[in-house]
Specification:
The chain contains 19 helices and 2 strands. By secondary structure, it is mainly alpha-helical. Among the domains are: 1-89; 338-406. Strands 1-2 form a two-stranded antiparallel ribbon. A hairpin with a 2-residue loop joins strand 1 and strand 2 (247-248). Keywords: Sigma factor, Transcription, Transcription regulation. Residues 14-74 form the RNA polymerase sigma-70 region domain. Residues 175-273 form the DUF6596 domain. Belongs to the sigma-70 factor family. ECF subfamily. Pfam families: DUF6596 (PF20239), Sigma70_r2 (PF04542), Sigma70_r4_2 (PF08281).
Length: 406
């Protein structure tokens, strides 16, 4: 029962925090009251049963706890008056173009006054409901470091009086890159969970896609929003085939008949729209548009053998020009291995030296396996298993390691 309650709470966490932030204008009050609501649910629900509307129950309980806390504090008069504003449900300030609590909170967390890494960390905590440990794992930093980032970011918002609203049209462009990064990282945490018993956290992928759709409604002419939405839809279309019997199923082995064709069609239409816009305007496609195009090629192929690897390699070349980095180079090396053989791909992978990245070890292990270098492959599989906490991925890597000769 407690596990079910925690799952419901995680699903509703972003909604509860965003709602309380709008009402009270204080992130600490909102987050702590949400946590107290969880404790109340853990006490009450095993006895009374889960309410018909658990999100509404958690929000109502959190609001009451927040008011109780405000009343207990020293500056009672001013804060008590702020708490009473809940009765007419009036926001503290203009809410912007889109009436969505979570979107307002998203732009608040991504304010340019905050450091980029703090924006992402805070949003993953408050919107995605990720623990500090999970966020730290996603960023490959110590948990204490990530806890300090979150704490400092909330203090900065409070001290600088950063507004809780969707910014004006003039400010949207400069704020958009950080927002898109946050949405994509929330999606990635759901697509392949960094911690916990569930290999896939559909509530996070669904939430990221929902935020992507809202952003597209807000800025329909922004190509990178369309690209990110297409990317998430195309990746999520493969969700039904990605895990079987508790084990991650790699792309070459997935049952493509189980892919969600409606999501694929929607994603392909968005990719075509982005490419047509790039041709008309002469503006090269950005990072998310190119990643979406890569996934469009994958989802267009009826089988793994039919994949157009030349096109994928060319797309990664374009991506390296606009967003260079070792992870892009690693993915390009995978395409090169399919085109020119595993030895050529392995040479490219070894030049990157991403020793803290589990996908680098997993890629090396697979290429070494294909080359028949079982001893080295076994060591690479061990390193990949040690670098990930996802149970389905660990199960897949362990099976592949067990199949090595000798």
């Amino acid at each position: 029962m407690s596990r079910d309650i925690e799952r419901i709470f995680r699903d509703e966490f972003g909604r509860v925090v965003a709602s309380l932030t709008r009402r009270f204008g204080d992130l600490d009050v909102a987050e702590e009251a949400a946590g107290e609501a969880l404790l109340a649910a853990l006490e009450r629900w095993p006895v009374d049963g889960v309410p018909p509307n658990p999100g509404g129950w958690l929000t109502t309980t959190a609001v009451r706890r927040a008011i109780d806390r405000i009343r207990r504090e020293q500056q009672r008069d001013a804060k008590h008056q702020a708490a009473l504003m809940i009765h007419d449900d009036t926001p503290h300030e203009p809410t912007g173009a889109v009436d969505d609590d979570r979107l307002r909170l998203l732009f608040t967390c991504c304010h340019p006054a905050l450091a980029p890494e703090a924006r992402v960390a805070l949003t993953l905590r408050l919107l995605g409901g990720l623990t500090v440990a999970e966020i730290a794992a996603a960023f490959l930093v110590p948990e204490t470091t990530m806890a300090q980032r979150v704490t400092r970011a909330k203090a900065k918002i409070k001290g600088a009086h950063i507004p809780y609203r969707v910014p004006s049209a003039a400010d949207l462009a400069e704020r958009l890159a950080a927002v898109l990064t946050v949405v994509y990282l929330v999606f990635n945490e759901g697509y392949l969970a960094s911690a916990g018993d569930a290999p896939i956290r559909a509530e996070l992928t669904d939430e990221a896609i929902r935020l992507g759709r809202v952003l597209r409604t807000l800025l329909p002419d922004e190509a990178e929003i369309a690209g990110l939405l297409a990317l998430m839809l195309l990746i999520d279309s493969r969700r039904p085939s990605r895990v079987a019997d508790g084990e991650l199923v790699p792309l070459p082995e997935q049952d493509r008949g189980g892919w969600d064709r409606a999501l694929i069609a929607e994603g392909h239409a968005l990719v075509r729209e982005c490419l047509d816009r790039a041709r008309r305007t002469g503006r090269p496609p950005g990072r998310y548009q190119l990643l979406a195009a890569v996934n469009a090629v994958h989802t267009d192929a009826p089988t793994w053998a039919d994949t157009d690897w030349s096109q994928i390699a060319a797309l990664y070349d374009q991506l390296a020009a606009v967003d260079p980095g070792p992870v892009v180079a690693l993915n390009r090396a995978v395409a090169v291995a399919e085109l020119d053989g595993p030895a050529v791909g392995l040479a490219a992978v070894d030049r990157l030296g991403l020793t803290a990245y589990h996908a680098w070890h997993a890629t090396r292990a697979d290429l070494l396996r294909r080359l028949g270098r079982s001893g080295e492959a076994r060591a690479a599989y061990d390193a990949a298993i040690a670098a990930t906490d996802n149970p389905a991925e660990r199960a897949f890597l362990a099976r592949r390691r067990g199949q090595l000769a000798g």
